[in-house]
Description:
By secondary structure, this protein is mostly helical. It has helices at residues 32-40, 45-51, 57-82; strands at residues 3-4, 12-14, 24-25.
Amino acid sequence: MAHSYPDDNERIIVDPAILAGKPVVAGTRVPVYLIRNLLGHGDDFARIRRAYPPLTDEDIKAALAYFEDRLRREESRRFDLVRP
Length: 84
């Protein structure tokens, strides 16, 4: 069963049948972590769109927002675990 995330305008989905359930841009097999990795290594939106033509700027922004939200939640959860 696929899950979408309303905060990302349903652009990011998690479906066990697609890339073993890794978050991807809806309608593609492009994982969120790949987009974040490309941005982290200096690629810009235009270069990512050329490499992955189905993606739009909004898809890339949604992937980045999804990644940052999950990172924030993980950091918060870790903080809660170590607090006395």
